[in-house]
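Supplementary notes (optional reading)

For those who missed the lab, this is the record we used. Protein: Stage II sporulation protein M. Length: 205 residues.
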Amino acid sequence: MKSAFSENKFIILFSTLLFVIPMLFGYFFASYISEAMNPVINSFRERVQQGDIQLTHDSIFFNNVYVGIILYCGAITFGLLTASVLISNGIFIGYFATKMPLYSFLLLTLPHGIFEIPAIIIAGSSGFIMFKFLVEFFKGIVKPVITNDEVRLSVKNRIANSLNNNINRLTQSLVLLGFSVVLFIIAAFIEAYLTIGIARLFMIF
């Protein structure tokens, strides 16, 4: 697990910036994007009120894992879907923070957010690493590194060799995805059972 983080520092940093910069943009430039964002916020609130989105552990967890899987599978879109999900989630959170006093927002999000936000970023990183694996894997099939003993590599052998040469990157992507799922489990538990209680200790609803 350690190597999955240490060998992909740049990708993790890149994913972090793709989330944090849009989040700051959504907060500080809220007035400029309100026309586009208000329908999204209103739709979210309506879904909560109608029960489409439930603040139960299972509902929160499966919703978060669904986002994590989309971030991971975004690899097949050349990482574009992964990037867009990170950016859109960052903007949404930043903009949503302007809809209430910042103190109240932090109380209602920090307890689970300290696990959920890193989980989203790490899941995004796993998607980019998976994309990197796919690029190198197919590159190894199309243009394999040939030695004198492997002049006539069959397609099957090319696939096997390319997979063997890039298996570490695939493993790292799965390790990071698994780690994000663990963080999502913790975040869902805190959000469902602790966040409101913690907030009530510090403010009056």
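If you only remember one thing from this example: The chain has eight helices and no strands.
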